[in-house]
Amino acid sequence: MLCKPIFSALAPFAMLPLAACSPSQPAPQPRAETVSKPEPAVVVSATSQSKPATDSHAVPKPGELKTFSDWTVGCDNTLRCTLGSLLPEMGGEDMITLNLSRKPGPVTASGGKISLALETRNDVEATKRPPVSFAVDGKRIALHDAAALAAAIANAQLLKILDAKGGTLATLSLKGAAAALRYIDAQQGRAGSIDAIVAKGAAPSSAPIPPLPIITAIAPSGTPAKLSGAQVATMRKRATCDLGSFPDSAGESITTPETHALGGGKSLVILPCSTGAYNLIGALFIVDGTRITPAQLDARSGFEATGADTGASVKSVINGEFKDGVLTSYAKGRGLGDCGSRQSFVWDATRFRLSEQADMGECRGNIAYITTWRAKVIR
Hints:
The chain is mainly beta. Helices cover 11% and strands 32% of the residues.
């Protein structure tokens, strides 16, 4: 199981014609809210439900990301859509990025809320002079007015992020922003309606609100299995592990497999299998007494999720962890972490189910991944 580079080919999107907004039927304004990160999977206790929830057995289909010049955009399975700014391909001093998200549903039914998130962790100046407002083609917009910002950038050329004294912290290109917003209008079923951002029209909005799929998961219990040397050797052979990829200085703490009790006498094994720069590939096995089998997942994981791996007989996670009943994978496209795929899986007694996925297909400075799949987890 070799470490492979991540490559993502993003197809162009055909732009829709711009419709005029009827002056006799003013468009309702979406409410704005500010969030710091995409909405995660929802985890609730079964005891809090009025009646037992039924597993929807949905087949995970994470949304695709598309890039329009200096912006990338994608939607999850509930049609919550996000567009994110991208830094210049040749690099630069400014490292602040902006994500704008919109919830599904008609504005008249309390849907369509717009939120924004600024990512400043990689920008030195922003830690000294926090952002306080925006300037779109010279027009000031309050830091938390996400709806006004979305409307403004749809017909503008330049976006500046300002500090308290009006100084410019970063300048973001708006090339492609209107096309990305138009894409969201189309994906959410708003094109030609009164609450579209770009593709406005006179028609009332009938934007759907798809429900969250439900996963009935098992809370971990029991004692993790203790592995023998022979069992570890068997798993490494089965997964075709490349121990030669580990540096000579790698100690047992890196190559020793982790075991975690799942319940019902079964344990999860995360077997360090190969490594490359900033990615540690862990093969997944289930131990049940003396029986060892590759773990089953209901979605592509690790490098498979990025499109960089065509699949293997033994599934894997990248930089994987198992905590509080959630198995995570974080496949990085490069050390900065500005491209790749983040995933979360939960155990349903037979296989691991994808409960959340967030992706970034462009290695252009934006470390705020776009959520492409979510589920409600019931335990």
